[in-house]
């Protein structure tokens, strides 16, 4: 009996020994929070020159040269650091090694924000080297597709496979670098800068076309192009289906392609642009129907948004009336521009033709809104043209009247 | 065997005790996080170096386990410190981990890609809450190592803050962050669109915010520090830095130009609806002329013309045109630009008096316009000669002289 008790106690004690000896591994939940979640200490068995202390634990060893970085990556991975943490650490180390601010550090503070093309080129070279080293160190974990948050990826790239996401990211990065260089080379010349940007956009598009199927390219552009950004901003306050969005996007894309951004517009170019804007608006109205259309327009067309401000003080100016006022305004601008450009009108008749046009549009305005609203509109930025019509017509009246 | 049982039991119980003590000690050494970090820090001090590899005895090798709670994250940070990770690597891991966790705790709403542009007040508030939470946790975990003064590179710090102390840099960063959030929230409440914006209300609100921000900034700095900070970061400074990108200048020249630019910006008319009236335009043109002359006094050589190309877009357009005529010097370009401005002002004034129906009769005004137009056409010819004058009238930059030419002719001959 006594022996049986001793054997039982001994067995129990030995089981306890085993449990205590393997405590962190055998009983993660029974020990402490750290065993399951923090860092579990291992046994230091330092390898020469690197920071690994055993197969799966790590001590930090500051990298003294680029040659130390691969062992840091290997040791972090061996110690169980997840790819996102390894990426973050390596990114930080590379940021310190390839710090672009060091290139301009010897310049006075007022010269650093607009570095010379040579400095921008040097910064780009540094960035390229950094990217190459990042990829060499992390391999597949360095791929943009590996680092993207799934929701953001879906928003930006839809269902594109990893290799295409990576290739697009590379194209974007390349053109971003080239664009920075072009901006620096333009030395503040906005016209030149815009011309260069247009050329680069074309080249970038060609690269994307070579990479993606036509359907993939459209999906990508519907998510990321400047036309897409404009439409997404304009529809932020309305609900719409993907089909409706696609229609709006295609119309906007066509408009943007036909009316490139310029630093200055002649009256003729401005008239052409507003005519195309009218076409675009009508396409949007057909897609969205009346109610959503006005909300969309207030967020997409500055001139309409200005006119629509009138409704704050004049409730009779409904969105539909604002739209009619806006249309009247753009029509009058086009009519002015047409008369100015029409060389066939004899000089002596141009004045009377202009007066007739002004009289007609002044009448249209009075027919559209009440006298009170018409006066308020003429004092607003959009309606100042109608105030000018009034003055011109008054000045043209024979004296003594 | 019978006799050995008590001995074996005693040995086993002894081993039980030893293992229990060992585990207890290990657990204790890990639990008081700050104490452990202090121990590592003091070990580093003792060894006289901050390099972790040189003090291996004080360091604790680690193995990663994904943190799931705030407490886990505290343990992670303590362990990374104990293993000798430098603050920058620590910050990188913490930032990544916090972002991942906060994304889980405050997930972005599922929305189709065409609805990704969301500036609703609710969404902006949610984003700001997440940012604030990340910052708060980061500071709680890393202490001073999370503060901006600790994270800036030396070059960036010098560029933005000059010689300001850590405390002031951190206080300034907080003010900048707070007011940025206030501005964003105000923007979101006002439609979140620059197009559909009630400009007057938005401008008033932004002015109030900017005034309050400046007062807060001024409260933590000496006047000299504030002046230095503004010379580095204000809107006036940013405009000036763009204008001087193609020229070299010393610090006193920069300071003089900055003061002139600031005076110009401060005196700008403030249109309530975002659109300049004719009076405001005239006021602005006069102020621009005064600024240009101040800049010419500072940059009393060809640098002035280089500066002016970017500082004044009207001169920039004129200079671009004259750039194709090697015989036209920068000084003549500047004279042409001044003539252009003068003619624009004169036309504006005539239009204004017509608008207000003050002064002369309409017939007299027409005669005045013809005289004025002829006068400016003569000045243009005298300045650049007939060939360049004709080319200038056809260039978009010189359109006003084209109008003046038409105006100078009697109505019956216009358009021919």
Structure description:
The complex is a heterodimer of chains A (401) and B (416). By secondary structure, chain A is mainly α. Chain A is built from 19 helices and 2 strands. Chain A has a two-stranded antiparallel sheet. The longest helix of chain A has 32 residues. About 9% of the residues of chain A have low confidence. Chain B has 416 residues and is an all-alpha fold. Chain B is 72% helix and 0% strand. Chain B is built from 18 helices and no strands. In chain B, helix 8 runs antiparallel to helix 9 and helix 10 packs across helix 11. At the A-B interface, helix 1, helix 3, strand 2, helix 5 and helix 8 of A face helix 1, helix 3, helix 4, helix 7 and helix 11 of B.
Helix/strand layout:
The complex is a heterodimer of chains A (401) and B (416).
Chain A: H1 2-21, H2 23-26, H3 33-37, E1 52-54, E2 57-58, H4 69-78, H5 83-97, H6 117-138, H7 144-147, H8 150-157, H9 162-186, H10 190-211, H11 214-224, H12 226-234, H13 242-258, H14 267-298, H15 302-308, H16 319-341, H17 347-368, H18 371-379, H19 384-396
Antiparallel strand pairs in A: 1-2
Helix pairs in contact in A: 5-6, 6-9, 9-10, 11-12, 12-13, 13-14, 14-16, 15-16, 16-17, 17-19, 18-19
Chain B: H1 4-30, H2 33-47, H3 70-82, H4 87-105, H5 121-142, H6 148-151, H7 154-161, H8 166-189, H9 199-219, H10 223-233, H11 235-243, H12 251-266, H13 278-298, H14 303-311, H15 313-322, H16 330-356, H17 362-394, H18 399-408
Helix pairs in contact in B: 2-3, 3-4, 4-5, 5-8, 8-9, 10-11, 11-12, 11-14, 12-13, 13-16, 14-15, 15-16, 16-17, 17-18
What are the defining features of this structure?
A: 401 residues, mainly alpha, two-stranded antiparallel sheet, elongated, B: 416 residues, 18 helices, 0% strand
- Total helices of chain B: the number is 18
Greatest contact between two chains:
A-B, 110 and 118 residues
Low-confidence stretches of chain B: 21-57
* Distance linking N and C termini of chain B: 131 Å
Q: How many distinct helices of chain A?
A: 19
Strand content of chain A: under 5%
Sheet having the most strands of chain B = none
How does the major sheet of chain A shape up? 2 strands, antiparallel
Whole-number mean pLDDT of chain B: 82
Number of DSSP E strands of chain A: 2
The Rg value of chain B, from CA coordinates, equals: 35 Å
The structural class of chain A is mainly alpha
Overall geometric form of chain A: elongated
Elements of chain B, N to C (H/E)? HHHHHHHHHHHHHHHHHH
Strand content of chain B: under 5%
The share of residues in helices of chain A is: 55-70%
Rg of chain A from C-alpha positions? 34 Å
